[in-house]
Amino acid sequence: MSKALLRYIRLSPTKARLVAREVQGMNAELAIASLEFMPNKAAKVISKVIASAVANGGMGAENAVVKSCRVDAGPVLRRFTPRARGRATPIRKPTSHVFVEVVEQSKDK
Length: 109
Hints:
The structure is a single chain. By secondary structure, the protein is α+β, with helices and mostly antiparallel strands. The protein has one domain (2-104): CATH 3.90.470.10. Helix content is 34%, strand content 40%. It has helices spanning 13-23, 28-36, 41-57; strands at residues 2-9, 64-82, 88-104. The radius of gyration is 17 Å and the shape is elongated.
């Protein structure tokens, strides 16, 4: 089992979790290929983390299975934008931590 972790990525955890759920339990090679055609920013990020986890384990992508793909919330950058009558409203810029675990596929399948 090998792991990869990407922290403080400027990405909404809610949107990233939608992509992370799609690849859980998939073959790593198939997961990377399917993420390549998704239009989300999260797809590109998660694809790189899966590739990193496979490389960390020293195995080929065709022999690896995504055991878990988890997206946790990181700190939120708070900015303010000016509004009418001298007021200011907050802008939330969320960050995420992406965690991927990859295991080697069993030979009997």
